[in-house]
Amino acid sequence: MKILVYGTGGVGGYFGGRLAQAGHDVTFIARNESLKAIRENGLIVKSVNGDFTIKPAKATDDISEIESPDLVIFGLKSWQIKDAAKHLKSIITEETMVLPLQNGADNMEKLQEVLPKKNVLAGFCRIYSKKEAPGVINHFQFDPEIIFGELDNEKSKRVLKLKEIFNNSGFKGIVPDDVHKAIWKKFSFIATVSGLGGLTRVSIGKMWEDDYLQGILKKTGLEIQAIAQAKGVDFNDEDVAQLYQFIGNQGITATASTQRDIMAGRPSELGNFNGYIVEQGKKLGVDTPVNEFIYRALLPMEKEARRS
């Protein structure tokens, strides 16, 4: 399969590397030091499941060099996905599948503003990985998974074929019965802990140990549930209970990537998490006071990070 991976961070670098290792024709869109490093040294992946190097690895920053792909995997941040889709629009054919793996609940909606609906799949991933250095990916925990499906949850031939490809490439491909519910279940966790973690600057475990902060986390989750249900997603009380249990089971030192971005003064996915809940609340007539406070309190720092 001809695959284009947009982004060579912990997500795009790892999954693209595994697909290339399995023999697929993978091209990476990379820039600056990452592009230089991949061209000179290949793509280096350090993994708890076995280290490997893709050399030579196909990498470019020039769209005109890329043949139309069968599959595009987006390994960027949520707030970058729409511009990336515009960048690639000229090489997307009727048969191209476009799969977003970002955190967030509206990545498919963003893509459909730019690309035809039939090209877009819904999806996300589970992986603990990071870009250790330009061209070097470190997968340090968890057996990686890509969870994905058609927007209407049809078990189509292309989705089942893609699932087989993923399962034969060193990671799990999972097609759930309801991909939107699956997306919201992950989103509810990451959106709940990230913003408050950025404000308090302590780990998830320490927030959960504090009765007051645990109460704030729970209220944040309930507001997210209300938005999901208002949008027609089957995010029920059992899912909320599982969310709280999952948060409570996080290690005492665990932090979310967006929390770490906020604390480091880097541009973050704040607007795609708490900001998205606030925006949808206003649109749907659902009150979201806790998410709005977290979002508004962090917004000045986010604006400063983007300016710099």
Characterization of the model:
The protein has 308 residues and is α/β, with parallel strands linked by helices. The chain has 2 domains: 2-177, 3-Layer(aba) Sandwich (Rossmann fold); 180-307, N-(1-d-carboxylethyl)-l-norvaline Dehydrogenase, domain 2, CATH 1.10.1040.10. It is 47% helix and 19% strand. The protein has helices at residues 10-21, 32-41, 81-88, 107-112, 157-167, 179-200, 204-209, 211-230, 237-248, 257-263, 274-284, 289-307, and strands at 2-6, 25-29, 43-47, 52-54, 58-60, 71-74, 97-100, 122-133, 136-149, 172-174. The strands form 2 sheets. It has a 5-stranded parallel beta sheet. Strands 3, 4, 8, 9 and 10 form a 5-stranded mixed beta sheet that branches. Helix 5 links the parallel strand 9 and strand 10. Helix 6 (179-200) crosses helix 9 and helix 8 (211-230) packs across helix 11 (274-284). The termini are far apart. InterPro entries: 6-PGluconate_DH-like_C_sf, 6PGD_dom2, ApbA, KPA_reductase, KPR-Related, KPR_N, NAD(P)-bd_dom_sf. Its EC number is 1.1.1.169. It comes from Zunongwangia mangrovi.
